[in-house]
Structures are given as structure tokens and as C-alpha cells.
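re: ur question from yesterday

yeah so i grabbed the chain u mentioned. its 215 aa long if i counted rite. heres the sequnce exactly as i have it in my notes:
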Amino acid sequence: MHFAISPPNVQLLSKRNQLSMPIEEESSMSKVIIWNLVSLDGYFEGEKKWDLDFHNHGWGEELEKLSKDFGASAACLVFGRITYEGMRDYWTTAEESEIKTFMNALPKLVASRTLTQANWNNTRITDRIVEEIRIEKQKAAPEKNIYIFGSADLSDSLLEAEIVDEVMLALVPGQLGKGTPFFKKREHTRMFRLLEANPLKNGTLVLRYEPARQD
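ran it thru and got these C-alpha cells back, copy pasting raw so excuse formatting
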């Protein structure tokens, strides 16, 4: 299974190639960052839960490096219940690696009203996820970020709460045709400001956006 942190699905390249497009200088403040891999037609998984075969077309040395960078820069990881259960099952049994080490060691928050106990190391369950993320962000050292991996429903809720500083997507050059869309239907347009566009050798495009705040 490949999830560049979202069982290999996650990172930001520390070295930009000649085709990258940095838009502005980086801030040293802690950020709340959503990360996911999506297909060209906007799906983050196929018709079945955890159908992530298209990740194989995005995965490579560059995303592996990005995943390791995520681990080095993370103060806390955040999941919805379904993503938490899949991540837990994968990373507690995966082969030994640098990514497995930090995925199991880092503090983790799980947004759930139904789970009563956590059975993954350093994990806390909460039904007040927005408040808990704000607390973690205040506690975090500069340049240590809170990452939301996968978790499309949770990501939508956090965007609505305007607690997200950045949305980071790996746009994989493939069309699934059907599956679960990452972005949910909404009545009003939500705009994003491009921070960086970074093409990878395999054709995947890593995009970083800042959500526009609602008036």
C-alpha cells in the first residue's frame, strides 16, 4: 500500500526543481495543513474505501522525501475516524522504515463521536476537534505543523471552520472516472490562493493553496 504518509500518500519537496513556481516566502509560524493525493478528476479514493491504487502512479523518490519531511516538521497528526482506523492498521504492521517510526511516534488527534478509546500509540480521541487543533497549534514550536491526512469529511468541516492555513494536494495524472470526491458539494464558491506549484518527475503536480477567508 502506498500512502505518502496517508499510508504512503504525503510530503512537500524541500528542493525545488527548475519548473517549480514558488509564489511567496515561507512563514516560520506553525500551520494547519491538509494533505492528500487526488486524481485529475478530483477523487481521493476509488469506489471502495481505501481503494488507493492510483497512488502508485504518484509515488516515487520525491514523494518519499516529502513524507519524511512531513515527519520532521509535524507537531501533531489529525484524522477522522475512518482514516484513523486505516492508518492505524497499516502503520502498526508495516515494515520498519523512517516513515513508520514517526507515524507511530507522533502525537495524533482523532475526530470522533463514536470511538471510546484509542489503540494506537500517542493517540487522543476528541469530539471537539476544532478547539483541540487550536490548542495544538498554540503549543507547537515555530515551523512545526499540524497535518490532516486523508479524512475528506473532516477536511471539509475544518475548511468551513476556517481553521486551515494551507491545502496541499498531489495531483496524480490519472482519471478514475468514479470514486469518492475529495471536495464536498457546497452552495457557495470557495476560493484558494496559489502558494506553490511543483511538478514531479512522474507527472504528479504538488500544489499548495491558502484558503481565502470568508467575508
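noticed a couple things. Helices lie at 61-73, 81-91, 98-105, 129-139, 152-160. also The chain is about 25% helix and 25% strand.
anyway ttyl
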